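quick one
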Amino acid sequence: MEILVLGAAAGGGFPQWNSNSSNCRRARAGDPLVPARSQSSIAVSRDGTDWFLLNASPDLRQQIFDNPRMHPREGLRDSPIAGAVLTNGDVDHVTGLLTLRERYPLAVYATPRILSVLEANPIFGVLNPDFVDRRELPLGQAVELCNPAGAPSGLEVEAFAVPGKVALYLEDTSAGENFGTVEEDTVGLRVTERESGAYFLYVPGCASLSADLAGRIEGAPLLFFDGTLWRDDEMVQTGAGSKTGQRMGHISMSGPDGAMAQLEDFDIGRRVFIHINNTNPVLAADSPERTAVEAEGWEVAWDGMELRL
Ligand code: MLT
Ligand code: MN
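structure w/ manganese (II) ion:
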C-alpha cells in the first residue's frame, strides 16, 4: 500500500493568505527550514495505479499539478484518482471536490451525515450524479473501496467516530455547548490492505483521546494524527484569533492533555502529525518545538511525503 501526503497543513494552509506571522513570512521567502504546506489531504493506493483521496482540499488542483503520480496517464481524459473519502464536512476537507467537477467518474465515500451536508448544498451538484457515485460509510463497518465502475481496489476503509465538532459553517449556536455536533460529524479512518492486513489510521481532526480511539491506536503500524496546534491557547496567545483548540475540536500536541503525552506509552509503528495550523511553531524545522516533537518520536508531515506499508 502506498500513501502520499498531498497537503499537511490545516484549514487556511501555510502560509495562510492573510497571515503575516514570522513563520508565514519565512515560508513566503522560500526559507528551506520553513517550507509551505497546502491544505489537508492524503492519497492512498494499493498498487500505485488507482488512488483514493482521503479528504479533498481546496488546494487539490495545485496538489495534482505538484505530484506527477496524480497526473492523467493516457487518453484525452484520464485521472489516477478513483474517488475520495471524507472525514468531516470542513471547508478544508470537502471543497476540493469542486475541483473534480466535469463529467468524470468518481466514488465519494462519507458518513450518511456528511453526505447529507453535501446533498443539502447545491454547489456540489457540479459533481454530475450521472458520473459521481456517493457511497455511505456506516460507522464501525469496514467497506471495500471500489472504483466508480465497482471494481474492488484491494483496500478497505472503516470510519469510526472521534471526539470533535461539527463544521464551523454548520454550528448551531442555539444547540448548547457542542453546537449540535453529532457522532458522524468527525471520523477517523482505518485503511487496510486486504491481502496483507497492513493498515494505518488517519485522524486529522480530533478533540481528545477517547477510550475507543485509544484502543484503535494501540498497536497501529502507522498513525496520522491531528497536529493542528502546539498548545491549546496558541491562537489567542499569538493574537491570531480568539478560539482555543478545544473550541475548534482539536487536541494540542503539547501539555498534559496533549497528543504527545497521551500517546507516549502506546505501541505505534510510526506516528505522524498532520493538519498543522499556520500558528504551530513546529512548522519551522529550527524551532525548539520541532526538536521536542521529534525527540518524542513524532514526525511532522510535509507535502510530498511518501510512505509505504
Ligand atoms: C478545522 O479543522 O478546525 C477547520 O478546518 C477550520 C476551518 O478551516 O474552518
Ligand atoms: Mn480542518
